[in-house]
Amino acid sequence: MENIENISKKNLEKAFEIIVELNIKEIWENLDSACNLVGSVSTGLLMNHLDIDFHTYSDDFSIEKSFKAMAQIAQNNKVKKVTYRNLLEAEDMCLEWHLYYEETPDRIWTIDIMHIKNESPYAGVVERVTEKVKSVLTDKLKQTILKIKWECHQQKEAAHGIAIYQAVIGEGIETFEDFKIWNNNKKEAGISLWEPDVEIGKLN
Q1: What contacts 103, CB < 8 A, 6 or more positions away?
Q2: Which tens digit of pLDDT belongs to each residue from 8-56?
Q3: Given 3-state DSSP classes, what are the helix, strand and coil percentages for the chain, each rounded to the nearest 5?
Q4: CA 134, 14, 145, 149 torsion-angle sign
Q5: Which residues, other chains included, contact 185 with Cβ-Cβ below 8 Å and sequence gap of 6+?
Q6: What's the N-to-C CA distance of the chain in angstroms?
Q7: CB 97 within 8 A of CB 114
Q8: DSSP notation for 128-185
Q9: What is the C-alpha to C-alpha distance for residues 13 and 158, in angstroms, rounded to an integer?
Q10: In sequence order, which residues have a C-beta less than 8 Å from that of residue 188 and are 6 or more positions away?
Q11: Residue 199 in 3-state DSSP?
Q12: CA-based angle 104:10:144, to the nearest 5?
């Protein structure tokens, strides 16, 4: 079996190739919008789940602008499917996009783009958590997180990345077996509010 860290590295390299190929950041920026890479690609903790996450913001927010950005990104023939949800009247206050990029028939990437209103209570939250996770990562923590992600995939254990980060970074969990017990016993929340206990001003 190929080394877990090598698999993660190769997937990360491909993720950044896809981001460049689809011109995602430039398309949003040309529409006077901020486009922030968040999640496992940004933290370097991508494992088996082929997923790329962006949060975008526009001062002159509009549904039309969101569709315009997606229309440009979806011109690439490898984008085989696009889904959309309007959550502007929900607590999230965002437009939720999912693009499905076919690297090969058995390697389909999901690109999640959340177009978030500036007044959303979640505006900037995931960016802050992403930076905090990056700031506290050590080689050992990274290895533990990747191994648990790998085992979750192999054992078909459903788990969000943020839950694994909380278990390993926040709770000191070191094995898949202990994570599975912790994950099954924790209270479910629609959107995780956990973040590493580190002050923003001390990230660097």
Answers
A1: 14, 18, 50, 78, 109
A2: 999 999 999 999 999 999 999 999 999 999 999 999 999 999 999 999 9
A3: 45, 20, 35
A4: positive
A5: none
A6: 37
A7: yes
A8: HHHHHHHHH--HHHHHHHHHHHHHHHHHT----HHHHHIIIIIT---SHHHHHHHHHH
A9: 25
A10: none
A11: coil
A12: 120
Query: CATH code for 4-121?
Result: 3.30.460.10
Q: What are 71-111's pLDDT values in tens digits?
A: 999 999 999 999 999 999 999 999 999 999 999 999 999 99
Instruction: Give the three-class secondary structure for 116.
Output: strand
Any idea which residue has 């698999």 for tokens?
A: 7
Which residues lie below 8 Å from residue 200, measured CB to CB, with a gap of 6+?
128, 131, 132
CB 44 within 8 A of CB 146: no
List the chain domain ranges: 4-121, 128-202
CA distance 56 to 40: 17
- CB neighbour list of residue 97: distance below 8 Å, 6 or more residues apart: 66, 70, 82, 83, 84, 112, 113, 114, 115
Q: Are 186 and 164 in contact (CB under 8 A)?
A: no
β 107-116/51-58 pair status: parallel
Pair 50, 161: CB distance under 8 Å: no
How is residue 31 written in tokens? 């529409």
Answer yes or no: are the C-beta atoms of 7 and 129 closer than 8 Å.
no
The owner of tokens 């690109």 is 111
Q: pTM to 2 decimals?
A: 0.91
Structure-block tokens of residue 1 = 């079996």
Plot region of 122 (φ>0 → left; ψ -120 to 50 → alpha; else → beta): alpha
